[in-house]
Amino acid sequence: MRDCARARRRGPHLGVVLALLARRRGVRWTGVTARGLLADIVEGVRWAYGHSGLRTLAIATHCWFVGNAVVGVVLAPYAFLTLGLTAFQFGLVGAVGGVAAVVGASITTAVGRRLGTGRTIILCHSTITCGVVVMVLASQPASPTAAMVLLMLGQGLYGLAMGMSNSHEMSYRQLVTPDELQARTNTTLRSVNRAVIVVVAPIAGLLADAVGIRPVLAAAAVVFALVAAGLALTPFSNVRAPA
After folding, report:
1. What is the chain's Cα-based Rg?
2. Rounded CA gap, 216 and 209, in Å?
3. Pick from 131, 139, 137: nearest CA to 156
4. Which residue positions in the chain have pLDDT lower than 70?
């Protein structure tokens, strides 16, 4: 890239020389065209949201990212402005979430074998719901220390559930997807998940300014609860990862 940039500055002749040298070194065009790329994208979308068995989980995960985007926006203002925590205290809250995520990742295999993939993911979403509810309740105690403890507990439940659910969601997606569609499926679903954050995060911030931080955080708990309930009411609850 740097060579090409220098070539553009020095004139077209040097650019031609560099292109010829690149060809002599074995650099080849990939042959990818816009039409071919579009076809690959469409194929990935059809697989992810078609009859692959991923559609229910994919839509639920998109909705989960709505709640996650809200929590990501309002948690820090909630800790500082509503609960009056210091930066050090908020750092401890984050550390608890990180440790809990490691614990969740370490026990997720045993839990999955006992409950199955679908029920484990539903349990994780239910646990996240409880964690956010505990965070909302952290504004009730008069003592800042009690508020910090409740926020730690809520963040711990949140991290525990994330550590448990991620491996099951990713492994199930990869196990049911053919090798030739792995990249397209992962790219499709991850792109939509990130797009959800891009859209929802600013809206969550505006709502927090308009109606208050605590009600918006409570709304995130409702979103997570709906995701868990929605999965529980579908055949996905009985899904087990293929052996």
Report:
1. 23
2. 10
3. 131
4. 1-37, 242-243
Q: How far apart are the first and last CA of the chain?
A: 45
The answer to whether 93 touches 131, Cβ cutoff 8 Å, is: no
pTM of the model: 0.82
CA 150 to chain CA centroid, Å, is 24
| Helix 182-211 and helix 213-232, axial crossing angle in degrees, nearest 10 | 140
Specify whether the CB–CB gap between 45 and 188 falls below 8 A.
yes
- Which pLDDT tens digit goes with each residue over 59-116? 999 999 999 999 999 999 999 999 999 999 999 999 999 999 999 999 999 999 999 9
| CA atoms of 128 and 132, how far apart (whole Å) | 6
| Cα–Cα distance, 28 to 217 (Å, whole number) | 52
Contact between 223 and 67 under an 8 Å Cβ cutoff? The reply is: yes
3 state DSSP class of 139: coil
Tell me the C-alpha distance between 95 and 89, whole Å: 10
Tell me the C-alpha distance between 40 and 21, whole Å: 32
**Residues ≥6 apart with Cβ < 8 Å to 37:** none
101-137 per-residue burial string, b: 16 or more CB within 10 A, e: under 16: beebbeebeebbeebbbbbbbbbbbbbbbbbbbbbbb
> Nearest-CA neighbor of 131 among 168, 166, 179, 93?
93
